[in-house]
Predict the 3D structure of the following.
Amino acid sequence: MTYGTLTQQALPIDEQSLAQEELNQLLATQSETVAPTQDPLTHRDRQIIATIINSTPDQIRTMWIEGGITVWVQLNDGGRLPFDRNWFASRVAEVKRTIAEPETPRQRNDRLSDELEEACRKYGLSHGDIDWLSFSIKVFQNGHLVGFVGCNAEGWYSRPRLYGRNQMADTAEKVIGYLGVRPVAVA
């Protein structure tokens, strides 16, 4: 019976460094797939930067401050733009004032609740507790159920029965009118 002997063969330096570089790239790709790096810039940040440099938000890749005095903006096409830190900070402050803050769910609910209260007052209706999750309520006139009113992504809706077709409108006042209720006459 014959046995083969394995001998370890050293790679030349050039091939070894190329193989190591290839391995490092493979590991970096795999780690990015498993745990992608989180983008530090929000859409609003990109919108502000894009407004300053007269571009679009999807063109902005990242930004950083170098040496405490220069702000660099990296674009997706590989280009980089340098700015003085103080000038850039003042422009960010100016642009932030012109771009509206996104409405929080709490602010949205407060706004919708105020609109609903005003519409119910105009029609002389009372209502039960608001279901904040779906923003819907039962509305009553003189203790009798008139219907259901709510607001979703499509706008305000109402329906006279629990199950049925929704009537859609852009204001709470209009959908309450769809329930067949008339506004209270002011004496």
Notes: The first strand starts at residue 60 and ends at 66. Helices lie at 13-34, 43-53, 85-98, 105-123, 172-178. The radius of gyration is 31 Å. Residues 13-34 form the longest helix (22 residues).
